Amino acid sequence: MAEEREYRLRVGEAVIALTCPDAVFARSMAEYFAQASDPADPHVHLDLILVPHTENPAVPNSLILHKTVQDGAFDIADDLIAGHYDPQSGTGELRVKTLLTNGLMTRVFEQILYQAFHSACRRAGYDACLVHSSGVIADGAGYIFVGPSEAGKSTVARLSGDHTVLNDEMNLVEFHPDGLRLVGTPFNGHFRDKQPGAAPLRALLLLGKSHVHALETVGAGEAIGAVSTQIAPPVGLDEIATDQTPQTMLDLGTRIVTSTEVRRLMFTPDAGFWPVLTENLGRVPRG
Asked: Mind listing the domains of the chain with CATH numbers?
C-alpha cells in the first residue's frame, strides 16, 4: 500500500513526506532518524527513486555548490541526485544514486533534505534556520554550541549526558516575537544519543579548546561572523546558491546574535564546563 511506503519526517514545524521505493525502505528511514513517520499533513511531498549504478560516482562535500536548476528541474554532481520540484504544489521527485543510502554516505543524502526543509519552510511560513551545532537543554533552558570542524561539538554532546542532548551536529533556531527557541532535529541519524526537545535559547557558545574552563566576552561582529558560517545555506529544492546567499546567512546570524547572550566557552574535555555556564552566564556583558 502507498501509505506503507510513505515516510513523513518532521523537522521543527516543517514536515517532509517521502514516498519510498518500498515499505522496508520507509521503515529504515524511521529507524535511521529515530523518529516515527509523522501524522501531520506534509508541506513538501517527494517521490523518492533509488537509482542503481555500477560506477563509483564522485561525492562532493557540498551538494549546493554542485547544483544546477532549470525550470524546476535540478541536477547535483552529474546525476548523483536529480529531480524536480514545484513550489506551488509542494510536490516533486528525487532520484538518488544508491551509494548515498548506505553507511556514512547518508550524511550527504541528508543535505538534500536540508533543501527540502527550506522549501517546506517557505510553504509553511516557518521562521527558523538550521545551524551546524551541538544543542543541549539544561534546567529548561537551551544552549547551542558552535564552531568549525573539530572545535568540540561532539565532545560537548558526549559530556552533557546529565542533560537533554538534542543533537551533536544540526539543530534549529526558531525566531519568535518573544525570543529565540532551540529545537532538536532528527538529522545525523548516526548519533544515537540525541533526544527530542525544545526550549527557549539561553545562550550561544563559541567553542575553543583550553586547559581550563572559562567564559570570554565576544564582540558582536566576531560573533555574527562565527555563527553565520555555521548556518545551513537557506536554499530550497528549486533554488541554487547565489551571491545573495552569504548575505542571507549573515542576516540570520545577526538575528541570532542580537537576540541572545553569546560568549566564547574555553573548555577542556570534561563536564566541568557546565557549572561555569550555569553560574556565570549573564554576569559579564557581551563586548
From this structure: 2-124 (no CATH), 128-280 (3.90.228.20)
Q: Residues 9-52: pLDDT tens digits?
A: 999 999 999 999 999 999 999 999 999 999 999 999 999 999 99
Instruction: Please report, as a single letter, which amino acid is at residue 28.
Output: S
In eight-state DSSP terms, residue 8 is E
DSSP 117-168: HHHHHHHHT--EEEEESEEEEETTEEEEEE-STTSSHHHHHHTTTTSEEEES
pLDDT tens digits, 49-81: 999 999 889 899 899 999 999 998 999 999 999
The dihedral over CA atoms of 232, 181, 87, 27, expressed in degrees to the nearest 10, equals: 80
Give the C-alpha distances (Å, rounded to integers) separating 146 from 78, 101, 103: 32, 27, 25
Residue 14 contacts residue 33 (beta carbons within 8 Å): no
The DSSP code for 30 is H
